[in-house]
UniProtKB/TrEMBL annotation:
The chain crosses the membrane at residues 44-65, 77-100, 112-133, 139-160, 172-194, 200-218, 256-277, 289-309, 321-342, 348-371, 409-428. It is a multi-pass membrane protein. The keyword Electron transport does not apply. PANTHER family: MAJOR FACILITATOR SUPERFAMILY (MFS) PROFILE DOMAIN-CONTAINING PROTEIN, PTHR23528. This is MFS transporter. It comes from Pseudarthrobacter quantipunctorum. InterPro entries: MFS, MFS_dom, MFS_trans_sf, Sugar_transporter_CS. It is found in: Cell membrane. The lineage of its organism: Bacteria, Bacillati, Actinomycetota, Actinomycetes, Micrococcales. The keyword Cell membrane does not apply. Residues 1-24 are annotated as: Disordered. Keywords: Membrane, Transmembrane, Transmembrane helix. Pfam families: MFS_1 (PF07690).
Length: 434
């Protein structure tokens, strides 16, 4: 991989909300107008499946099981430590690798090299986690998983505004959301299949990640960024580019904040779900129960994502879908808070799936329409992805405080609902997207 470092003039005009570069634009930087093929979308979906299996299999099942094997009495603290440290890595890795991919001049394109390198690193780290003998090693290897998986995720996310025209983004966003959800489901399936053997679970996640990226890499057709198109690399300019002024780009700032809040609410709802099944609902087989809930959730996400995304394309509106789906997500958390019984958990999973499917599809399309610069799509989408990662740092801390100091799981789920609703409220501040 090489980075563009030759000085050349670049139109400094703002490329707000997906506008194309004026004059001299290369295919890598131009606003896409040609619809992507079904084969390309399939590759995109599969990459999302593998990355999310690698993320959520460990987060939801295997790190928790490994924490129990280390110290049952402090399992919540161990899980919170691991997930928070991994998420802290992702806060830096996602925008950093997104920015590096923006400047990559490989003959294989800007994004594909980082997808491959990230997948290989994360796969190796997952295999190492399976043999971690101490909490410290488990946390270290999980941080490496986050480093590699976020490099791949930053690149595949940036490929959407690179390649997909705006009128197709709701549909593609819905299919990408379906891929994310299938990855979560695979993580739960792995958890049920291995019957508590977290070592085998990590191996399955590693295999799923590595195999999932191959179809995309063989048929990515990523546009190549020629050398000399971007200005010479300067570290100070590069680092300053990670700050996007809310005053100059208010819609980007509001979109980031709303995504952050909704994700905090969602993470609060699921971070201790395995323990909730085990300790509160007294489920006889918590991993199997988790699989049932995840399967219910996944089915509803896939239905609503593939319906809501294209629907928002047809009507040309995004905000009403995002507001409504955020409110539905909060409703699911309230159900878990008020009715801590198995049937209510099933209902909550279904409602959460309905809301989150629509949210993932349409909010993703909305986000791609408020990116400030065409030349910085990878970096800017990486900053947006921080709104996905930062909740993994914040939510475990809030969850631990809620469960141990604020009254237990009921307080936890009420907090999740309130924070999620705030995300719905702030969507109205976005002005450039209907």
């Amino acid at each position: 991989m090489s980075l563009s470092d030759t000085p050349a003039p670049l139109d400094p005009a703002r490329q707000g909300h997906g506008a194309s570069l004026q004059g001299g634009a290369t295919a890598a930087l131009a606003e896409p107008t040609r619809k992507v093929t079904a084969r390309w979308v399939t590759g995109l979906v599969l990459v999302n499946v593998g990355i999310n299996a690698a993320f959520f299999g460990p987060i939801q099942i295997f790190i928790g099981l490994q924490a129990i094997s280390f110290d049952e009495a402090n399992k919540e603290a161990i899980l919170s430590l691991a997930t928070a440290c991994g998420a802290a890595v992702s806060l830096v890795a996602n925008p950093l690798f997104g920015a590096l991919s923006d400047r990559t001049t490989s003959r294989f394109g800007r994004r594909s090299p980082w997808i491959l390198a990230g997948a290989v690193l994360a796969t190796a780290a997952l295999l190492a986690m399976s043999g971690a003998a101490t909490v410290a090693l488990m946390v270290l290897f999980w941080c490496l998983v986050q480093l590699g998986a976020n490099a791949a995720y930053a690149a595949i996310t940036a490929a959407v505004p690179d390649r997909v025209p705006v009128p197709q983004r709701g549909k593609v966003g819905g299919l990408a959301a379906m891929g994310q959800t299938l990855g979560i489901l695979f993580g739960a399936v792995f958890g049920a299949v291995v019957s508590g053997n977290f070592m085998v679970g990590y191996w399955l996640c590693a295999a799923a990640l590595l195999l999932s990226v191959l179809p995309y890499l063989f048929h990515s057709d990523d546009p190549v960024l020629p050398k000399g198109v971007l200005p010479r690399f300067r570290l100070g300019v590069f680092l300053r580019g990670f700050w996007i002024s809310p005053r100059h780009y208010p819609d980007f700032a509001w979109a980031w904040l709303t995504r952050f809040l909704v994700n905090v609410g969602n993470q609060l709802s699921i971070v201790y779900l395995l323990f909730f099944l085990r300790d509160i609902l007294k489920h006889e087989n918590p991993p199997a129960g988790y699989l049932v809930l995840t399967g219910t959730y996944t089915l509803m996400v896939m239905i609503t994502a593939v319906v809501a995304g294209p629907w928002s394309d047809r009507v040309g509106r995004r905000k009403p879908f995002v507001i409504g789906s955020s409110a539905i997500i909060a409703m699911a958390a309230l159900i878990l808070a008020l009715f801590p019984v198995w049937p209510a958990a099933l209902a909550g999973a279904a409602i959460l799936g309905i809301g989150f499917g629509a949210y993932l599809a349409v909010d993703f399309a909305l986000l791609t329409q408020v990116l400030p610069l065409a030349s910085d799509r990878g970096k800017d989408m990486g900053i947006i992805n921080v709104a996905n990662s930062l909740p993994q740092v914040v939510a475990p801390v809030l969850a631990l405080v809620a469960v141990t100091s604020w009254g237990g799981y009921r307080s936890l789920f009420v907090t999740a609902a309130v924070i999620g609703l705030l995300g719905a409220v702030f969507v109205v501040k976005i002005k450039s997207v209907r």
